[in-house]
Amino acid sequence: MLRPDLTSFETCAQNEALINEFKGNLFEYLVAVQMARHYGVESSFVKSFSGKVREQFSYYESWLRKHDLELVKKLPKLAQCTFSGLVGELPKKIDQVFVVGKMASGSGNKELDEADVAYVVGDKLFPVSVKLCKANAYVNTKSGGIKTFLSKYFSAFPSVNLLQENLSKTVEASFNRVGHNMYDSVGLDWRDRFDHQWTDQLLSELPGQLPKDLNMILQVFYHDTIEALYHDLESLFSEDKKLFKRCLLPLVGLGRSDMVQVTCFHRDSKVNNEVSKYNFDSVDLYTSKRFDNVDVQLGELKSGISSFEIFLGKTTLQIRVKPMNKFTAPALKVNCSVKVKGRDS
Predict the structure, then answer these.
(1) Which segments of the chain have a pLDDT < 70?
(2) What is the C-alpha to C-alpha distance for residues 39 and 32, in angstroms, rounded to an integer?
(3) What whole-number distance in Å separates Cα of residue 114 and Cα of residue 337?
(4) Phi, psi (rounded to 5 degrees) for 326
């Protein structure tokens, strides 16, 4: 489905989110173009982008030209550098190349959920995860709802269903307490949910638009949840460290053993006292083999923040809880992201 013409935004953050979404879609396409061209299958690849799909990608590019022209100019070079870093991991011959968003949407193939690009050799399909990220930043790898997070990603543990049930109850109870306190703070009568009273007072449902006093109350909800999730994972880690490590692989973006994950890092630089953005920095490429012989350690649970870290050798997996688009429902998402030591500026 094509997006409508978007010309204005409620917040700068929403604008940035849209740029990131379109940037990611175009970047995946451009990396796939490089791959298809290298293996001599560009003609069949281009034919797969016709009609509504071609129209959609043209829209992404024209929208970005209007809102971030420098990005549009730099993306092809970044894609070329990314493929140069990836090609050594690929076979000598490839028969077809796809952008997974197009292919998987109609195939129902859930195994490709983590992949952005896929290639075919004979009758076998191989996934590639393609990321574009600012240097020295965490790379997003997975996002899931808090009420299914444990049962989905740690299902191999016999005790997980009970842990998930108790975690969901904790989320509900904390949300109710925090909602009650927020309503009290603005002189409203809490009725077990955020209702029309809240919006009638022209109070925002977006966490970034709350005044400081209300935001501080809301933070308690995040802290209660991250603490409960941490202790649940700590329990599973103590139960079976090898199984725990295996369950972490999808969270670092490697749900399939044959997945290749390639990340292109870019950075800003100054040229003649002017900031030049989206300059190529480096490419990081890895498979599940990176974690074969590394130990897993849980980081400390720190007070006052809504995240914690798990260390797999040189890779740091950050697990953070965030609200959905609006905080007025008892639901949170769990965002997972990774960073490799040695990439600090």
Answers:
(1) 1-15, 50-51, 101-111, 113, 342-345
(2) 11
(3) 13
(4) -115, 145
CA distance 203 to 184: 14
The residue written with tokens 């191989």 in the block is 126
Summarize pLDDT for 92-131 with one digit per residue, the tens.
999 999 888 655 444 455 667 678 999 999 999 999 999 9
HSE-up (13 A, CA, CB side) for residue 50? 6
> Rounded to whole angstroms, how far apart are CA atoms 331 and 311?
27
Query: Closest Cα to residue 117, out of 245, 27, 205?
Result: 27
pLDDT, tens digit, for every residue of 198-240?
999 989 999 889 999 999 999 999 999 999 999 999 999 999 9
